[in-house]
Every structure is written in structure tokens, then in C-alpha cells.
Specification:
The complex is a heterodimer. By secondary structure, chain A is an alpha+beta fold. Helix content of chain A is 41%, strand content 16%. By secondary structure, chain B is α+β, with helices and mostly antiparallel strands. Classes of the chains: A alpha+beta, B alpha+beta. At the A-B interface, helix 3, helix 4, strand 13, helix 7 and strand 14 of A face helix 2, strand 2 and strand 3 of B. Strand 13 of chain A pairs antiparallel with strand 2 of chain B, so a sheet runs across the interface.
Chain lengths: 586, 144
């Protein structure tokens, strides 16, 4: 149970043979810290660049880093896999109790290979790995219930994390998510479908070890400094009080809140789904990820009457965030708060990524509007704001009763190729777009980002900082610089909300007591190296940066930086390809 | 301090759960308890937080209540758990034979196990955990 040398163990699990073993990977951990840095190397070893993402040959890596359980906001786990949505590198982050549980179970990473013939779930309690039959859990309609059942059956409440998929993952919807502790997710890029393809319903992992550090006095001192910063900083206060939905109104004001499939950047009913209104009208509880004093997770309490029973109610708790208010709110024209929350709850129960689902539905609604498809395809009259139809559509995506839903379950890029409307299919590199119509940095960021999502390089934030547009080449370089630094943060693996606290000096100072001496400038070099490694893996998986192109729609609707020019993107993307060429990646 | 003791008023301290509904489940207290020894994790922690059956229902905060008649001490066959004046117990590790009866006897489940040394983990009422609770869920309080 007690491990003097805790920082390099990798747990390998083979689902084909139902065996597991542990390897000490000091070689990798010394060079790549952990998290994304370590994960990329482990993924490379799986040599699966050309495999089908839904075949048993697709391995899943879950990796944590030196800061998990160790420092405040060291709360994330990175999952790496081949994405069934984009066919390229899959990379997704989740909090909850996942990272602390994995770390305190004694592991830096878990590699899951192969596939089971029958439904199973994995119960990992420190050094014991159980392959448990999950036939009875397969097919359950709600991923919340799956979690409850496992929580009742397995030991170590409070020390464990429960990762599971819903029916969407079982049915291989390419943007199915993996739910963590009911309110956090490995949301993006379809890890849920990869679980489903392996007949892996869930993973419960628990650990309560005590791990040693090298310099005890310095460790406690540095911990206290970071903790103080975390609880005192205004940055943290805003994430705790209103949470990320605080962005709804400012972005709407700027004209940067994608509305009704980005036919507009402003939503008339934005106030209803704003952080302010949500907090005063429906906020029921705030919770935190393990090791994070901030507690940014906002749960709405939705009180619903039973239709046939007078004065009988149920209260459902639904975690909301900005991205969801965008994808299942403004993007679908849903301004009725209860409607938005109900839809969100169904999306969560099904185990779908909310952003991708919202973008797919928004495209379908517009395609229906434009007559590219008819109700014969959609089976429903999808209409902006009509949340009840969208709730029914969630079921359709899972069940896929006809060709249309089968195609839509493969993502919006695919569906639009099939049915038309590619110019308003809001996908970047095959991934449905996050909610920032802030300007060129956001969109170039989605395009060049490793996972084609907003947290890769925070272009949306850059857009809001720059007054005048720099040349696109300069913008791309800034994005690469930010993304490279984030490779370090994602190797530690901290929550990116704490990026303001963890500057290079602080990170270096915090690594030192753990016996990992890395000077700040060395960290920057490491970030760049991981960036290159990650991109070179993407290229090997078939990614072609010269094929990148923004969807036409984003060039039609003015951003806070005015109407965007195609030429600006072309120049930026060309420069990006040139940089990769200079680095001998392509 | 001596004068109080002589007067029979004890400045005994114990950890109190002020309001578990304020708890966000961040586990900062649990991590703090093990960090007393400058170690990382939960392996030395005498405080435990778990959800009350799903995090949406809130959290249960398990701490030693410093009982006046500690059931853990009553079942200890070696008198390794010595009742403290004013409530609670003090562990004499050299006497402990690691039978685990104390763990079973505590109705709150507030005695944990140290796997490294194979001994129970007993709260020492130092209040280190409370220093890291950002939401004032727990506090070290004087008992009389």
C-alpha cells in the first residue's frame, strides 16, 4: 500500500485477456513530467497511428502529473486516444475526483488496451484490478444511475472516482462523453464511443496512499503560498461565485455569443441563461473537484412537478457552465431557463458531449429551415427555442432510427458532407466549435489547436486583449506560444483556471521539493518539445494542416473585430504549415 | 493555563463541524491532514469527506468528536488509547497491537488506518485541517 517512489508507475490493463500489470516508467516521467507529456509518449508506444478508432487496437491513456493531489487545483486527468470523431488525436481533460484518485492509487498513468467481448467495468482499488461484469448495466438509459449503482456496490467512498458512459457511448455516437462523478466529463472528441467500442461501461478507481516528497519543509511552504494565492485571488472568486456562465452577458454584449447556428452573435434572451440569473434563480449547490478550494462547479436545482400527481415534485441537480449555455442555449435559440436545463439533463443522461450535440442540432435546424433536409429525415420539427423537440432529438441521436440520425451521430462535418450545408456546419478539424465568436484568434486557435478546441490556446482570450489585429503570422505565433506553455500546465496536470497562479517561476519552485528540479526557462523548452511531439503524432495519424479551412459561416457574421477575411486565415494557416515544416514535423 | 486546569476548567480543544451544508467536497482538509507530515495524499488523514449519496446531496464530514466517554478507548485491549481530560483520546503507539477494534467501535467511522505503520490514525485535535477549509465548514473549538 505504501509507495516510497510514487511518481512513475504505469498500470497496463489488457481487456482482451483480462490481465493487468505495472511498469516503472522513470525513463518517461523524468523527461516528460506526466500528464500530456507522458501520455503522448505512452500513446506513441501503442503504435496505433493507422488503426480504426473504434477497433480494439485503439488504446486509451489516462494520465496524471506531479501536481495532482500535491498542489491546489492540481485536479485534472488527461485522456488520450484516437478520436472516433475526427479520426485524429483524441485528447480530453476531466476533473472531479479522477486525478487525485488515480494518483493516490499509486499511478501516473493507466493504459487500457484491447476490448472485452461482453460488457464489463473496471474496479481499480490501488493495486487490485477487478474486471467486473457489466451486462446488467449495459443499456441503462441514464449515466447518472450507472454511477449510483456502482457507488453503492464498490468500496472507498470519498477516495474514489467513477467514470462511466451512457447509452450514447454504447451506441458509438462519435461525440459520446465519459461522465466523471456525475458533474464533470471527458467531454470532447468521443472518448465515450471508444469506451463503448471496448464494451467498457465504467471505471471506478480509488486510492488513499501517502506519498513522500523530497524536501518536506519547502513543500509545505510552497503549498501554502499557492493555496493563499488560490483563495485570495479575484480570479478564483469569479469562478466560484457565478462560475463560467459569467461570460454569457459580456460575450453577448460584444456580439460574440454564437446564436442559432451563428446566424448572429447576439441572443435576445441571453440574460435568462446568464450567470447572474442562473445564480439568483436556480443555483442549488456548488461543489469542487478534489484538491481544489475554488469550487466552480455550479449545480442548478430544477424542481419539476409530476404531471399526474398533485403537489409531488422531484428536484434534479444539473451542472451548468458557459459552454452549455452556448451549445444548448443560445446556439439553439433556447432562452427558457428551465427548458435549457431540461435539455442539458437529457444530454448528460445520454452521455453526449454537450458542445458537439448543440452544434449538430443547430446545423440540423438550419438545414431543415433551408430545405436541405425535411421532416422525413429529422422525424421532428426542429425549431429554434423548441427545447422539447431537441429533447426528443437526443433520443434519436442515441437510437439512430434512420440514415439521417446515423450520419448526424458521426458529427456535423460528416452529416453536412452527406446532406449539404457545409458552409454552416460549424466544425473545426472535425470537432464541433466552442462558443466564442470573438474574432480571428479564437478561430485560428480552433483550427491550429491540437484538439481543435478553445482551451488549446485560448484564442478567445487573445481576441479580447488585442485592440488592433496583428498580421496573421504574428497571431499564429502567439497561439503556438500559448499552446506550448499549456503543454507544461497539462503535464502537471492543473486546472487551466489556475493558469494565472502557475507561472513558470511558481511551477519551477513547486516542482523542486518533489525532487524534480526544472528551471523556468527549461519548462518553456519542455512545453515546446511536447507541442512538437504531440503535433508530430497528429501528423502521423493523418492530420494535414494544409487542408484546414474555416467554415464559411464565421466569415459572414461580424465579430467584435469586424467581418473576418478569408485571406487572413489563409495567410495564418500557411504560416502555421511553414512553422511545422521548419520543425521537420511535416 | 495552569490556573484554569486547577479550577477544573479545561482548555481542551476539538474539531467541530460547524455546517456540513457549506462543504463543497474539495478535500483540502483531508489533504492537509496528511500534509502535517509533509506527505501527499490521504494516507495519514484523520478526517474524511464523502458525498451523502451523490454530490448533489451534499457531503458528510467525518471527524473525531472527542467523546467524553470514548468507545474506542473502551474496546482497546492494551490501553493504547488513553482518554483525554475534556474528551477524546491520545494514542500510545508503542502499546498498540493493531487489532483494529477501535476502528470498529467508533460510531462515526472517525478512526482511519495508517497502512504504512499499521496503526490507527487518531485525530490529535491540532486544527491544521481547519486552516485550509475555505468555507468555514470545520473549526477547532475549545470545549469545557
Amino acid at each position: 500500500m505504501y509507495e516510497p517512489k510514487p511518481f512513475s508507475k504505469v498500470l497496463y490493463i489488457d481487456l482482451n485477456r483480462r490481465t493487468s500489470w505495472v511498469e516503472e516508467r522513470d525513463d518517461l516521467v523524468e523527461e516528460w513530467l506526466g500528464g500530456i507529456g507522458l501520455g503522448i509518449q505512452l500513446l506513441k508506444e501503442e503504435s496505433m497511428t493507422s488503426v480504426d478508432p473504434l477497433s480494439p487496437e485503439n488504446s486509451i491513456i489516462l494520465a496524471v502529473g506531479p501536481f495532482n493531489a500535491t498542489y491546489p487545483l492540481g485536479s485534472k486527468t488527461v485522456a488520450l486516444f484516437k478520436s472516433p470523431l475526427t479520426g485524429n488525436l483524441g485528447e480530453s481533460y476531466a476533473g472531479g475526483r479522477s486525478s487525485v484518485s488515480i494518483k493516490l492509487a499509486g499511478y501516473m498513468a493507466i493504459v487500457i488496451r484491447g476490448a472485452s467481448e461482453t460488457p464489463i467495468y473496471l474496479a481499480i482499488h490501488e493495486d487490485r484490478v477487478h474486471f467486473r461484469d457489466a451486462s446488467a448495466l449495459w443499456g441503462m438509459t441514464s449515466s447518472f444511475t450507472v454511477g449510483r449503482v456502482i457507488a453503492e456496490r464498490e468500496p472507498s467512498a470519498g477516495y474514489r472516482s467513477i467514470l462511466r458512459i451512457g447509452p450514447a457511448g454504447e451506441k458509438l455516437v462519435r461525440y459520446a462523453s465519459v461522465m466523471v462523478e456525475s458533474f464533470r466529463h471527458f467531454g470532447r472528441l468521443g472518448l465515450g464511443a471508444v469506451f463503448g467500442s471496448k464494451k467498457l461501461k465504467a471505471i471506478v478507481i480509488s486510492g488513499r496512499k501517502a506519498l513522500k516528497v523530497e524536501d518536506k519543509v519547502a513543500y509545505k511552504k510552497v503549498y501554502d503560498e499557492i493555496f493563499e494565492k488560490a483563495v485570495r485571488s479575484g480570479l478564483m472568486k469569479k469562478y466560484h461565485e457565478l462560475g463560467t456562465t459569467m461570460n454569457v452577458l459580456p460575450l453577448n454584449e460584444l456580439g460574440a455569443l454564437p446564436t442559432m447556428n451563428l446566424k448572429s452573435g447576439r441572443f435576445e434572451q441571453a440574460e435568462n441563461i446568464s450567470g447572474e440569473e442562473m445564480a439568483s434563480k436556480v443555483l442549488g449547490r456548488r461543489i469542487a473537484c478534489s484538491g481544489c478550494p475554488v469550487a466552480c462547479i455550479h449545480l442548478a436545482a430544477l424542481r419539476e412537478p409530476y404531471p399526474h400527481e398533485p403537489f409531488f415534485y422531484k428536484t434534479v441537480f444539473i451542472s451548468y457552465d458557459y459552454e452549455l449555455a452556448y451549445a444548448l442555449g443560445s446556439m439553439l435559440g433556447i432562452g427558457k431557463r428551465e427548458g435549457f436545463l431540461k435539455l442539458l439533463h437529457f444530454v448528460e443522461s445520454a452521455g453526449l458531449d454537450a458542445i458537439s450535440t448543440g452544434v449538430c442540432f443547430a446545423w440540423a435546424t438550419e438545414a431543415l429551415e433551408k430545405g436541405l433536409i425535411s421532416e422525413r429525415e429529422t422525424l421532428l420539427r426542429l425549431k429554434w427555442g423548441d427545447y422539447e423537440s431537441y429533447i426528443k432529438a437526443v433520443k434519436m441521436i442515441v437510437e439512430q432510427p434512420n440514415e439521417f440520425y446515423k450520419e448526424l451521430a458521426l458529427g456535423v462535418r460528416n452529416a453536412s458532407k452527406h446532406f449539404g450545408g457545409e458552409e454552416f456546419a460549424l466544425s473545426f478539424g472535425g470537432n464541433e466549435m466552442p462558443g466564442y465568436h470573438t474574432g480571428p484568434a479564437a478561430y485560428l486557435g480552433f483550427l491550429v489547436g491540437g484538439r481543435h478546441s478553445h482551451l488549446d490556446n485560448a484564442g478567445y482570450s487573445l481576441d479580447q486583449k488585442i485592440r488592433e489585429l496583428p498580421p496573421p503570422e504574428e497571431l499564429v505565433e502567439k497561439l503556438i506560444k500559448e499552446e506550448s506553455w499549456r503543454m507544461v500546465l497539462n503535464s502537471l496536470v492543473i486546472c487551466l483556471f489556475a493558469r494565472g497562479i502557475y507561472d513558470a517561476e511558481t511551477v519551477s519552485e513547486a516542482l523542486d521539493p518533489l525532487g524534480i528540479p526544472v528551471p523556468p526557462e527549461e519548462l518553456h523548452r519542455l512545453g515546446r518539445d511536447i507541442y512538437k511531439q504531440r503535433y508530430s503524432l497528429k501528423i502521423q495519424m493523418g492530420f494535414d494542416p494544409t487542408e484546414l479551412k474555416p467554415p464559411g459561416r464565421i466569415l459572414e457574421v461580424p465579430t467584435p473585430h469586424g467581418t473576418l477575411e478569408e485571406e487572413y486565415f489563409e495567410r495564418g494557416l500557411k504560416h502555421f504549415s511553414n512553422i511545422l515544416r521548419d520543425w521537420d514535423i511535416i | 493555563m495552569r490556573i484554569y486546569i486547577e479550577l477544573g476548567i479545561y482548555l481542551t480543544k476539538r474539531l467541530s463541524v460547524l455546517d456540513s451544508d457549506l462543504c463543497v467536497g474539495c478535500a483540502s482538509c483531508m489533504l492537509a491532514c496528511t500534509r502535517r507530515f509533509a506527505e501527499v495524499g490521504y494516507g495519514k488523514s484523520a478526517i474524511h469527506v464523502r458525498s451523502a449519496g451523490g454530490m448533489e446531496k451534499g457531503f458528510i464530514v467525518v471527524v473525531c468528536r472527542a467523546c467524553l466517554e470514548p468507545p474506542c478507548a473502551k474496546v482497546c485491549p492494551e490501553d493504547a488509547l488513553v482518554p483525554r481530560k475534556g474528551g477524546g483520546v491520545i494514542l500510545k503507539p508503542e502499546k498498540c497491537i493493531a487489532c483494529g477494534y477501535c476502528v470498529e467501535a467508533c460510531p462515526f467511522g472517525a478512526i482511519f488506518w495508517d497502512e504504512e505503520v499499521n496503526k490507527p490514525i487518531i485525530c490529535v485535535y491540532c486544527g491544521y485541517c481547519a486552516n485550509y477549509c475555505p468555507y468555514n465548514v470545520i473549526a477547532l473549538e475549545e470545549v469545557r
